[in-house]
Amino acid sequence: MHELRWNPLVRQWIIVAAHRAVRPWRPTDKERASCPFCPGAPELKHLTSWDVVVLPNKYPALIPHPETPTGWRHPLYVSKEARGVAEVIVETPEHEGDFHTLTLPHVLKVMKVFKEEFEKLSRLEYVEYVALFRNKGKEIGVSLSHPHSQVYALPFIPPRVASEIKSFEEYFEKHGRCLICDIVEHEQAVRDRTVYENEEFLTILPYYAMWPYELHVYPKKHVKSISELSEKDLKFLADAIRVVTATYSRLLKRDAPYIMAMHNHPSKGDYLYHFHIEFYQPYRDPEKLKYAAGSEWGYWVFTYDGIPEERVKELRQACVEIQGNTGDVLGKCE
Ligand code: ZN
Ligand code: ZN
Ligand code: FE
C-alpha cells in the first residue's frame, strides 16, 4: 500500500508506504558479502564496470504507478496517490568511504549524476520536486553503510522548500534582491561564520543554524538549481562537499555521520530561489549527540547549544587540519 495522507493540523503530506516496515536494518559485517551495492550483487550483475550507478530503491516510498487510495470515505481524511520515483545513487564500488575519501574527479562524476537525475526526474509530468539527499551513519539510522545518496521525486513541493520560496518572495518584495545573494555578500564581507571558500561556493555555519555543526554551501552566483551549474561549477561544488565531509570526520576524529540535503528549485513553475546544500550534524560535541526532542519535535522550536560564531572556530580548525592531507582541495579554509 502506497498513499499520501494529508495531515490537516500541520498541513503536510505524509507518505504512507506499508512495505518499508520490512526493509533491512544495518547489515552486519557478516552480511557485507550480501551488500546490494557491492560489485557482483544481483542488482549490478548487468554492469561490467562502473564507478557511479543509479538503482531503483528496493523499498520505494513512492512509485510511478501506485494504486488509487481507497480512502476512508470521510471528508476529514484526504489522501492521494503516492506517485513518484525513489532511487538510490551508489557513489562508488568500494563498500566504505565518503566524499572526501573519493577523488575530486570521482565526486565530480557523482555531481554530474545528481544533475542528470534532477533533470531526468523533473521532466516527468507528475513530479513537482526532486529531493536529493544523503544520510550517513548509524546515528542517522542508515540501513546500508555502502556510500550512497537517495532521490525522491515527489508529487508536491516539500514544506521546507515552500517556506523558503515564500521567504525569497517576501525578501524580494521588500529589498528587490535575492535573500541568499545578500547573505553570501554579507558573509563574505564580515567573515564571522565562514568555514571554507572556493571560486564558486561559500561554506558557512549559518547565523540561523538549528544544529550545532550545521553547514550550508551557497553558490556565489545566483543559480536556481544544479541544472544551471556548468562542468566547472560542478567541480567546485564537488570540492566544497568533499571539504565539508572531511571537516566533519576530522572534527569527530572518526567516520562522521551527517545528513546532506540539496535544496533545488521545484521541477515545475518559476519561483525566486537560490540553490544551496544543507548539512546537519547529529553531534553537539565530538562525544555527545544532540537529540531532537520535546521542544524540536513537539513544537518545532530548536535550541542551539552554544553560539554559532564561537562554534565556527572548531569547524575552521578541523578544516585547516584537513586542508593539507585531503588532496585536490581547490579553495581555502577560513
Ligand atoms: Zn557494499
Ligand atoms: Zn541569489
Ligand atoms: Fe534550504
**CATH top level assignment of the largest domain:** Alpha Beta
The oligomeric state is single chain
Ligand set: zinc ion, fe (iii) ion
What order do the SSEs take from the amino end to the carboxyl end, as H and E? EEEEEHEEHHEEEHEEHHE
CATH architecture of the largest domain: 2-Layer Sandwich
CATH superfamily of the largest domain: HIT-like
The overall average pLDDT, rounded, is 93
Which secondary-structure class do the elements indicate? alpha+beta
In helices, the fraction of residues equals: 25-40%
Give the topology.
Blueprint: E1 2-7, E2 12-17, E3 53-56, E4 79-80, E5 85-90, H1 104-122, E6 129-136, E7 148-154, H2 159-175, H3 179-190, E8 194-197, E9 201-204, E10 215-219, H4 231-252, E11 258-263, E12 276-280, H5 294-299, H6 308-326, E13 332-333
The structure holds zinc ion (2 copies) and fe (iii) ion (FE).
Residues 35, 37-38, 95, 146 line the site of one zinc ion.
Keywords summarizing the entry:
single chain, 334 residues, alpha+beta, HIT family, subunit A, 2 domains, ten-stranded antiparallel beta sheet, three-stranded antiparallel beta sheet, 6 helices, 13 strands, globular, binds zinc ion, binds fe (iii) ion
